[in-house]
């Protein structure tokens, strides 16, 4: 659907050069809700704006449905843009137009006759739950309502792609959840492919099926959300994941644990069906080892279960080794070292 | 020597009419030219929808040259050009020409300032929807800036009333001329008082119209 092929974009202002996007290759499939996450300045917005050529790449290409959109003429590009909806962190509504006027604007651009336009606007406002606000002006709306108008406006011309630049970053947690639900609905009801960027991992966790992590202009990790969450490769990815699910107790608790002669801690990660089986107790019983769960959780992610437990074992050293060896064949298990726990 | 008010009134009425003609005509021509230049100035800026360094620098340069010149000096300085274009340097029509030039550049700056305060995100949203630059000018820039723009134009019209009086003193006719020849040179305080009162009423009226209009456009 959308393909970034070795795209780079550098901004030059005077002597300064900022490589906002560095040699990024990504491919977003039809029907995806693809999330790009990264800290501020990572180059997310720039990458997103390459999709509708609000920014032009210095090298590389962006293909949409197989077409290199950089090669389109100005007029063709405008036509193509009508089928790429975009929503923004600050909503960017036309203040001089009513809610209905805002939603109707892209339809006017597309040359849709008045009657049809009005019908479509009514439908869209119903879809986003703002039918009663049609005649209001944007400054009479709350942030969440403004974003609903933004979404309705972006969907007006029945786009096949929706790109979202931090669509929920200006909203409170409850409103964020509502807007995310709405985006999911857009994806499911209309089959719109969504590319969103965010700096909040919970946004990715709640609606995305795929994720890419960006740092300093580069994509450092990408994959489906379940795998990335359960097996993050890059330190930055791990950091983001910890922001939504703490997989370690706090440093002070770990220090206390160590000071009181606590044993080595092991992290066990369960995924999917394995969470239904009593692996731990069968293995430890077999080798006469006791285990103690120090910390952990089992949660749902992408409709699959995912467990993360910190465990210490008591028993004969050689037996513990046996237990570890056996567990390793079934689940992911690793020693929690001092570096990871922040004790060094 | 005092004027005879019974026969003088018609002259006052005529002069008021001339002043209004000068101000309104200048406002109309000045707005057409000024809004066009202001829009050009805005859209040709760096990173804007029709970025054009040369045009921007040129317009900016001309405005910066003309605006600081005191109106009375400008009026005299371009009198040869006025004669060439209008055919004469005295009378209402001859006053409208230099007034329009000055008003155009003032309005251009006012327009530019109002446009700069539009959130660039809104322009970007229109671009992302596939709006052409011309479309953006007429359906985004102008509507979004209209409320404050009317207030800006009101401010300009008030100073045009001032300019018309200045033009009047050097042969432009209107209330400035009356005030100068009867009130000042013949020391008739009553004429001075009447012209001043009429000018005050005109300013108030212009301000009131502008405020009402912009309030109506901004609807809040
Ligand atoms: N038009 C521009 N001119 C110059 N530099 C720019 C421009 N746009 C972005 N940059 C720079 O490029 C880098 C990436 O910016 P970008 O907006 O893509 O980051 P981001 O990941 O979206 O950050 P944030 O989360 O803060 O929005 C930054 O260093 C930024 O300063
Ligand atoms: Mg950004």
Enumerate how many helices of chain A there are, as a single number. Answer: 12
CATH topology of chain B: MetI-like fold
Q: What is Rg of chain B?
A: 20 Å
CATH topology of the largest domain in chain A: Rossmann fold
Helical content of chain B stands at over 70%
- Secondary-structure element pattern of chain A, one letter each: EEEHEEHEHHHEHEHEEHHHEHEEHE
Question: Uncertain spans of chain A, ≥5 residues at pLDDT below 50?
Answer: none
For the record, what CATH class of chain B applies? Mainly Alpha
Strand proportion of chain A, as a percent range, falls in: 25-35%
End-to-end C-alpha gap of chain B: 54 Å
Q: In order across it, which strands form the biggest sheet of chain A?
A: 6-7-8-3-9-10
By CATH, the superfamily of the largest domain in chain A comes out as P-loop containing nucleotide triphosphate hydrolases
Low-pLDDT runs of chain B: none
Gap from first CA to last CA of chain A? 46 Å
Instruction: Report on the biggest sheet of chain A.
Output: 6 strands, mixed
Pfam family, one (chain A): ABC_tran
Family (chain A): Belongs to the ABC transporter superfamily.
Domain ABC transporter (chain A): 2-241
Organism (chain A): Cerasibacillus terrae
């Amino acid at each position: 659907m959308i393909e970034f092929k070795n795209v780079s974009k550098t901004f030059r202002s005077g002597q300064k050069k900022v490589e906002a996007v560095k040699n990024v290759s990504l491919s977003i499939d039809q029907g995806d809700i693809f999330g790009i996450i990264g800290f501020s300045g990572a180059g997310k917005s720039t990458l997103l704006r390459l999709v509708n050529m609000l920014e032009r790449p210095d090298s590389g290409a962006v293909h949409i449905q197989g077409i290199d959109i950089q090669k389109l003429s100005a007029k063709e590009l405008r036509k193509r843009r009508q089928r790429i909806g975009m929503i923004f962190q600050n909503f960017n509504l036309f203040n001089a137009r009513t809610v209905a006027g805002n939603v109707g604007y892209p339809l006017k651009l597309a040359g849709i006759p008045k009657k049809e336009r009005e019908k479509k606007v009514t439908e869209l406002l119903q879809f986003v739950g703002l039918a009663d606000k049609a005649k209001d002006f944007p400054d009479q709306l709350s942030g969440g309502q403004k974003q609903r108008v933004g979404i309705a406006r972006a969907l007006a011309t029945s786009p096949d792609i929706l790109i979202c630049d931090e669509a929920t970053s200006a909203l409170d947690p409850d409103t964020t959840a509502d807007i995310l639900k709405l985006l999911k609905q857009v994806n499911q009801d209309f089959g719109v492919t969504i590319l969103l960027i965010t700096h909040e991992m919970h946004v990715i966790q709640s609606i995305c099926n795929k994720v890419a992590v960006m740092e300093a202009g580069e994509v450092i990790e990408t994959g489906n959300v379940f795998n990335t969450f359960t097996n993050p490769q890059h330190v930055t990815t791990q950091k983001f994941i910890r922001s939504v699910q703490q997989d370690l107790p706090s440093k002070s608790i770990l220090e206390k644990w160590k000071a009181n002669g606590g044993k080595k801690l092991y992290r066990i990660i369960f995924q999917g069906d394995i969470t239904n089986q009593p692996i731990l107790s069968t293995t430890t019983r077999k080798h006469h080892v006791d285990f103690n769960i120090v910390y952990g959780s089992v949660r749902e992610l992408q409709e699959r279960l995912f467990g993360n437990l910190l465990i210490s074992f008591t028993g004969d050293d050689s037996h513990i080794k046996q237990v570890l060896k056996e567990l390793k064949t079934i689940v992911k298990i690793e020693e929690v070292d001092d570096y990871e726990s922040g004790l060094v | 020597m005092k004027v005879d008010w019974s026969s003088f009134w018609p002259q006052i009425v005529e002069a008021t009419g001339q002043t209004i003609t000068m101000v309104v005509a200048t406002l109309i021509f000045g707005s057409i030219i000024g809004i066009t230049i202001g829009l050009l100035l805005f859209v040709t800026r760096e990173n804007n929808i029709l970025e054009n360094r040369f045009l921007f620098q040129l317009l900016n340069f001309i405005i910066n040259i003309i605006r600081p010149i005191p109106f009375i000096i400008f009026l005299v300085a371009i009198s040869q050009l006025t004669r060439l274009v209008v055919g004469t340097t005295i009378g209402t029509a001859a006053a409208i020409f230099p007034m329009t030039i000055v008003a155009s550049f003032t309005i251009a700056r006012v327009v530019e300032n109002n446009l700069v305060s539009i959130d660039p995100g809104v322009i970007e949203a229109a671009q992302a929807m596939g709006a052409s630059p011309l479309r953006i000018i007429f359906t985004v820039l102008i509507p979004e800036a209209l409320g404050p723009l009317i207030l800006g134009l009101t401010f300009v019209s008030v100073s045009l009333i001032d300019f018309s009086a200045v033009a009047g003193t050097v042969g432009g006719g209107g209330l400035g001329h009356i005030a100068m020849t009867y009130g000042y040179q013949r020391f008739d305080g009553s004429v001075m008082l009447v012209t001043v009162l009429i000018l005050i009423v005109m300013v108030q009226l212009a301000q009131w119209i502008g405020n009402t209009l912009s309030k109506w456009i901004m609807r809040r």
